[in-house]
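Changelog excerpt

This revision adds worked examples to the README so contributors can see how folded entries look when concatenated. The first example is reproduced verbatim below.
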Amino acid sequence: FERLKERSFQESHFVRGIYINDELIGIVNDVEIEGDKLEIGYAICSLYHNLGYGTEMLKIALEQLMERGFTEVKAGAFVENPASIRIMQKAGMTRIDFTEEIENRGKTHKCVYYSYKK
């Protein structure tokens, strides 16, 4: 949290909170920046899943990042998380031919990636 909080004050990074009535329910942030290409990550509190907040948040983030001059934004999701994959699809992102094995909480997960281009 402290790392994300510190980054949120830096113009060179993209960190946004998603709020309902002043309550933080989610976050979207840059994971990696390479020139005019950026990878983002996002999370929504489970109490607010399946209500459209994730899709709306991602659409707005993609729009803001394109306005900042990025030409491509990527995001990934574990294959066993179809809700996150659907968020990326509904936000206008397209599956790319790249996968990765990521270890998280003691398990290895296959991660698929989606891209949004200007």
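The second example, added in the same revision:
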Amino acid sequence: MIYFTNKKTMKKINLWSVLLATFVGFIISSIWYANFGKLLMQLHGVDPLTAQQNISPLTMLLELARTFILGIVLAYFVGTLQISQWRAAIKLTAILWIGFPFILLTGSILHENFPWRIAIIHAGDWFIKPLAMILILSWQNHK
């Protein structure tokens, strides 16, 4: 096994769990946006029937990198907080979601006139993706 170590708490972050969580998070997010893609285009004022819907390999690679970084951060929290049960995983997801995506998206709605319907679509992705990832990462702590 390959591990990263958090020196303060001496908790180990299992790289294989992070890679699995990254892959699952990427797939879940892809499915989410595949289901809401047409609505998202309409909300952006783009006709889904005439829009080019190809995603470049570079975009996919960068999204995988972003999801991997998220996986490392979530693994740190899961390890430090010793999350090992699904209820604790849901609680951590809710706390992180309220503290970050919810606050950032509502700030964009309030101060930048960001469309709330688009924010809801993104907020959903930013709840379900980390939830799946935290559940996977917490599984490594389950004894």
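Reviewer comment on example two: Helices lie at 15-43, 57-80, 86-112, 116-139. The longest strand covers residues 3-6.
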